[in-house]
Amino acid sequence: MKELIEYIVRVLVDHPDDIRLTEVDGEKTVIFELRCHPEDVGKVIGKNGKTVGAIRTLLSTAAARQGRRAMLEVVE
Predict the structure, then answer these.
(1) What pLDDT does 16 receive?
(2) What CATH number should be reported for the domain holding residue 13?
(3) What is the 3-state secondary structure of the chain?
(4) What angle do CA 57, 58, 59 make, to 5 degrees?
(5) 1 with 62: CB under 8 angstroms?
């Protein structure tokens, strides 16, 4: 799942080397904290949060296949 998020975000941003994705693993839930260059935060979030919403949907689907829950937080 981590690789999926990194791949999608690297394509969207202008500074792909500044992406930091931290995984906080729980028993049934995984939380991913995404940090990126300040100029790229808007690109990751998208208009009205549609881009990050789509990424979260893909992440939830991938996690459900493994019987888990996943959350994505964009940390500024």
Answers:
(1) 94
(2) 3.30.300.20
(3) CHHHHHHHHHHHCCCHHHCEEEEEECCCEEEEEEECCHHHHHHHHCHHHHHHHHHHHHHHHHHHHCCCEEEEEEEC
(4) 90
(5) yes
Domain residues for 36?
Answer: 2-75
C-alpha span between 76 and 66 (Å, rounded): 29
Contacts 24+ apart (CB under 8 A), 11-20: 12/40, 12/43, 12/44, 12/51, 13/37, 13/40, 13/43, 13/44, 14/39, 14/40, 14/43, 15/39, 15/40
What are the phi and psi torsion angles at 38 (to 5°)? Answer: -55, -30
Q: How many domains does the chain have?
A: 1
Task: Give residue-wise pLDDT tens across range 2-35.
Answer: 999 999 999 999 999 999 999 999 889 999 999 9
